[in-house]
Amino acid sequence: MKTGISTGCLYPELTENSIKLLTGMGFDRFEIFFNSFSELEPDYLDRLRYYLDSHSARVVSVHPFVSSFESFLLFSAYERRFIDGAAFYEMFYRAASRIGADKVVLHGLNTSYASSLSDKEYFRRYSIMQENALKYGVELLQENVNIFRSSRPEFISGMKEALPGKAAFVLDVKQALRAGVDPLSMADAMGDRLRHVHISDRNTDGMCVLPFAGDFDLNGFISGLAHRGYDGDLIIEVYRTGFDTLPQLMDSGVRLAQAVERITG
How many CA atoms lie within 13 A of 70 on its CB side? Predict the structure, then answer.
């Protein structure tokens, strides 16, 4: 396992400034949370890639800034909007490929959105989007998200069974905990199609905080992932309200890397 961090931890800092701050702290593996259309332009992406390469750093995943719009754009009853939306999402696959990332994160369908879409139709649409992503050398990863269709392990396992060898997933610890789901149970549902992990901790108030700043058994979680054969990235993903100072962020990264080394050898 390798450790890294999301630029989303420093939101609303500009993406390029977040990268500079985080590389200055010693981080060298990133998920980039793009926050605007201009950040998907080739010139911007090339400058970002040049900076990363010159600092021996790489991007492993990309998080679209339109995740909250996916229910309407991709999973409504209006088929034409899905077709257009699936084509629209190719800009994120293209951007990911240009900066060397091989994963793009999908939230999916919010259960508060009035949609009669069946799971079967959801899986069909995801399958089409995954095929599009693969053309760019990237995988589209379904994330488990609280209050979304993907919040339950049964949905995830059903997706995996319906799309053998095609469905791929990102496990988000905070989203599992908010949904009242054991993160390792979610890992079991994802099985060998688990590609990526967003890691965080929680405190007694249930607030998402930096790894090892709360009371969740992160050592047990990392050990559980290793026991299940997971060998991908552990990406720190918290909100800016989840810590007070940048040194705390840097310390959390060091502690996470040390824990992974101690547990996995």
Answer: 25
CA distances 234 to 57, 93, 128, 129, 225, Å, are 15, 21, 27, 25, 10
User: Tokens 């981080």 identify what position?
Assistant: 27
What are the sequence ranges of the domains in the chain?
2-264
Place of tokens 């450790």: 3
- pLDDT of res. 265: 83
pTM above 0.70, yes or no: yes
What pLDDT is stored for residue 116 in this prediction? Answer: 85
Cis check: omega of the bond before 12, within 30 degrees of 0: yes
Does the pLDDT value for residue 206 go beyond 90?
A: no
Confidence of residue 112 (pLDDT cuts 50, 70, 90): confident
User: What are the structure tokens assigned to 114, written together?
Assistant: 């009035």
The number of C-alpha atoms within 13 Å of 171 and in the hemisphere containing its C-beta is 28
Helix and strand numbers (H, E) in the chain are 11, 10
pLDDT of residue 220: 98
In angstroms, the CA 104 to CA 33 distance is 10
- Residue 114: pLDDT band by 50, 70, 90 thresholds? confident
Q: Is 111 left (phi over 0), alpha (psi -120 to 50) or beta?
A: alpha
Between CA 8 and CA 14, with CA 11 as vertex, the angle to 5 degrees is 105
Give me the residue label for tokens 């997933």. 169
Residue 36, amino acid: S
CATH fold for the domain made of 2-264: TIM Barrel (3.20.20)
Mean pLDDT of 235-247: 95
